[in-house]
Amino acid sequence: MDVSFLGGPRPQRGVGVVAPFDFALDRELWRWVPEEVSLHLTRTPYVPVEVSLDLARLVSEHETLHDAVRTLHAIAPEVVAYACTSGSFVGGIAGERAMCAAMTRAGAVPSLTTSGALLDALAELGVTRVALVTPYTVSVTRALEEYVAEAGVSVAGCAYMGLTRHIWKVPYREVSEMAHKAVRPDAQALFISCTNLATYDVIPQLEAELRIPVISANQVTMWAALRRLGTRAVGPYQALIDPAARSGPARPEIPGLPDVRGLPDGEQQQEGWT
């Protein structure tokens, strides 16, 4: 950060983030954030419930959101983001909108959720058929399918991991394998759900391999929050964030993931998302 002798650090802009009590990927959120923006994170109270529809409902109660947003009030963020996918889709579209309204009332600032940002991202990319990867159980995954269907988006393939805890420990290779299982030929994009699932480095590689945009829970949350500030997220070779990537992303080499650059020249060639 630039520092002047008399003036100190440059002014910063703030994004408040409300996350569930078990959120473990603070450092991943920061990777999408430009230098002039600061994230101010707070968490919902602990409840002794594993990842499930019951937990999703508990961490998205309006009273819980109100209290969490009020903890951010003193530092005056310009926007507040609720960083939890299941907690924001469990009540459907009407429930997600009600959550945003509750947070806005509590903090007097614009508010958004991960699941609302997902629908905005799909609209931005012109996607009406999306494949899904989730770390959830079948019941939570089905609720996500119902949520996107309610928005008029059909599900073109789905794969889930059946996890109820320690989701942040899932390695990139497993995320990549599930992505390849989920995507059917008619999928226009892939969404990787759950803000507790690490995805930043895997997105460009998957886009190169699958030849469709790949979006994730943390990515769409930061993209939407920063767009509200009138600035852009940082995500080279990520189609949602880097428009140049939509016409043919580069293939960065990512440790632990398969590298497609050893294929014959004819198989390496890629023109757009065709």
Automatic annotation (TrEMBL):
Enzyme Commission numbers on file: 4.1.1.76
GO MF, one example: arylmalonate decarboxylase activity
Domain of life: Bacteria
Region (Disordered): 245-274
Key words, A-Z: Lyase
Pfam families for the chain: Amdase
Enzyme class, broadest EC rank: lyase
Protein's name according to its UniProt entry: Decarboxylase
Taxonomy of the source species: Bacteria, Bacillati, Actinomycetota, Actinomycetes, Kitasatosporales
